[in-house]
Design goal:
With 103 residues, the chain is an all-alpha fold. Helix content is 61%, strand content 0%. The protein has one domain (26-101). It has 4 helices and no strands. It is elongated, with a radius of gyration of 23 Å.
Length: 103
């Protein structure tokens, strides 16, 4: 009997595992906070600082400023929610707080 040639086995490369974290990234939370501040037209100083921190983060990858600005945003949104301002929801605040919990 003749030997059959050995079959070559090729390894199948798997796609890199995706992060399945339910938490929101700090960059996305910052953009959400900035957009909501702009929509409600409140705290222009915080808006400009948040905008600056986002640009800085995209440049150097250091999220420290974003965490501080999102924390300040949460405080502003809680105050606005107490005033019954339309557009400030409990979900918005909880999503921002989830992003802060990643710290």
């Amino acid at each position: 009997m003749a030997k059959e040639p050995a079959k070559k086995t090729t390894a199948v490369k798997k796609a890199p595992a995706k992060k399945t974290s339910s938490s929101v990234s700090i960059e996305a939370a910052s953009e959400t906070a900035l957009n909501k501040l702009r929509d409600l037209n409140i705290d222009q100083q915080l808006q400009s600082e948040l905008d600056w921190c986002l640009a800085s983060y995209r440049n150097d990858g250091n999220p420290v400023g974003l965490f501080e600005m999102v924390e300040r945003s949460v405080n502003v949104f809680k105050a606005e929610q107490a005033k019954k301002t339309k557009g400030v929801t409990a979900k918005l605040i909880s999503d921002l707080e989830k992003a802060l919990a990643v710290r």
